[in-house]
């Protein structure tokens, strides 16, 4: 019953904004690799470079945004990031309509969207912590997670069909519009948001750029979780453009089959996110998080054995279902654990450091795996990533800590 708990009108508008932008992103799943392959006739190295550049440069641009956002009202920042993504994405269909779309423009748009994504996620995490009581954070994060996976179930098949019927940039338009609607939803939340107080100097200092990393790396349980998540996310995402090349190229999958192969298994993410509050209530936050973290590392190696036709499609869907179910369980528990263990005045910088590091790792590993695929072939590169993922549970923390607020309350009683 915890998953059905009412969290208030303001959270309702925040969730609605997240829903519409998530469905837009689901529709656009794989659009840039498809445009690069089918419109610009790019090869594996270029497709990998497209993904890597977006993550890497976007992460670099986002580094100073964390301290800047920390001491500003979060909702206006979120609206600004939505409008930035709207404008950047809308430039792609505009250029395509005039026959001016280029690989360089896709790179610039990827960078802009990636930087805005990081800033938005950091601001929204801090805003959520201020908006929702601590005991409801897992329910709220579970709803966001279930929305993400539901949108991924529905979006890619519809997106693939829309691109087949109306052209390759159709879903980019849809995603751009979704960010505009999200900005309107955020504006509808209403209420007043106090400006965060800033201690010390009024101007941004260079040392503050690293504050998020300093906090994470000094924390006994956030530190191993940090390294685990950036490695796992990096290895999983590094294979995404290679799978696009393998499935759409040598294996001859149609765009709608490619979308279906990764959309239908996302029902597992919905299952995992819905189970998270119940499992945490029964077994505890740390045990559920670490168990899901171990299980999610066991699936990706199966993608190296994909074959053409229905058997290959079924294999991808089975592997992805297992992976996504574990991720759907792990992610909201991690997000709640991270907020529980981070002081309010460091949430944005901590989440920014986390996102920047994850994006940088994804960029680096995507670039490396693109080169590896160019030398050995996409299938071999995917297999290597799957084998390395099997070792990532070694990075998970052995024990958990009490939430920060619980420790502070205990200290005040002694």
Descriptors for this entry?
globular; mainly alpha
How does the SSE layout of this entry go?
Blueprint: H1 9-27, H2 31-38, H3 44-62, H4 65-70, H5 74-97, H6 103-131, H7 137-166, H8 170-187, H9 211-218, H10 222-238, H11 240-248, H12 255-263, H13 267-283, H14 285-295, H15 309-340, H16 347-376, H17 378-389, H18 404-413
Helix pairs in contact: 1-7, 1-8, 2-3, 3-6, 3-16, 5-6, 5-8, 6-16, 7-12, 7-13, 7-15, 9-16, 10-16, 10-17, 11-17, 12-15, 13-14, 13-15, 14-15, 16-17
Question: How would you summarize what this structure contains?
Answer:
This protein has 414 residues and is mainly α. Helices cover 74% and strands 0% of the residues.
Written overview of the protein:
Helices cover 74% and strands 0% of the residues. With 414 residues, the chain is mostly helical.
Q: How many β-strand runs?
A: 0
Helix content: over 70%
Structural class of the helices, strands and pairings? mainly alpha
**What share of the residues does DSSP label as strand, in percent?**
under 5%
Backbone shape? globular
Written as H for each helix and E for each strand, in order along the chain, the element string is HHHHHHHHHHHHHHHHHH
For the record, give the distance between the C-alpha atoms at the N and C termini, rounded to a whole number. Answer: 36 Å
The helix tally amounts to 18
**Largest sheet report:** none
Low-confidence stretches: 406-414
- Round the Cα radius of gyration to an integer and report it: 21 Å
Mean of pLDDT: 85
